[in-house]
Amino acid sequence: MTRIPDWIKYKIPGGNNYGNVKKIITEGCLHTICMEAKCPNIAGCFNSGTATFLILGDTCTRNCRYCAVKKGTPSEPDYKEPVKIATAVEKLGLKYVVITSVTRDDLTDGGASFFSAICREIKEKSVNTGIELLVPDFNENMKSSIDLIAESEPHVLNHNIETVKSRFPELRPMGNYNHSIDLLKYSSNKGLTVKSGLMIGFGETLAQIKETLAELADSGCSIVTVGQYLKSSKENYDVKKYYHPDEFLEIESIAKEAGIKKAICGPLVRSSYKAMDVYMELKSGTACEA
Description:
By secondary structure, the chain is an alpha/beta fold. The chain is 39% helix and 15% strand. The strands form 2 sheets. It has an 8-stranded mixed β-sheet with strand order 1-2-5-6-7-8-9-10, sandwiched between helices. Strand 9, helix 10 and strand 10 form a beta-alpha-beta unit. The radius of gyration is 18 Å and the shape is globular.
């Protein structure tokens, strides 16, 4: 196995705010992708009083080879979840919240009605909170699902492409690269602010990264995150390459040259990394730093 380089450093979770966020999440019987996917930025996010909520349970119906989230047959959705999430957001006093989910291929709308309901509930309880919805691909019901979500008017619609096209069959065997690109295009054409994320380190080439960033730009993405893939369990796909911070700077330049307005690139960058800051900078037209 390739040795983890010195420039990738984790912070040990801890601190008063970390405990407070975890307490509210636990008491509300809620999940966060921060904990389920073992995000390397959990300490910083929880201590700043932010979190990315994971809805529709903790079990995914897909079998992506890089993901740490539990896979299998999910339980019945909690229909009180929209109110629970909105209440937690209010208690935490969040200025910006990211809502994501496991993929629920067992649900006709893929969970779109939950995303929409949560967005509306948060707006009712926390009128000044920015809302980013990080959604799955919704399978064959993509258009109707995005139509429903668009009606709730999230501030950002995020769908991660995750990897370059050539790696999809091996890493995301139940997904489809072109379908994800179509979702981003459709969402952009609906007038939504569209965002996507890419992980690298699977064995892709720089040319393939460049091609993917160009396609994301053409699909209407205003924001793109690019981060280093890190293996979180022995069952997950092996890391083929650790990119140096200088290489991430080059990739950021490539993204901006492709026409992406905000490109956040770095070893520990994840989809929700500095999400509020990036959105506010996009609105104001200022520069952002990873």
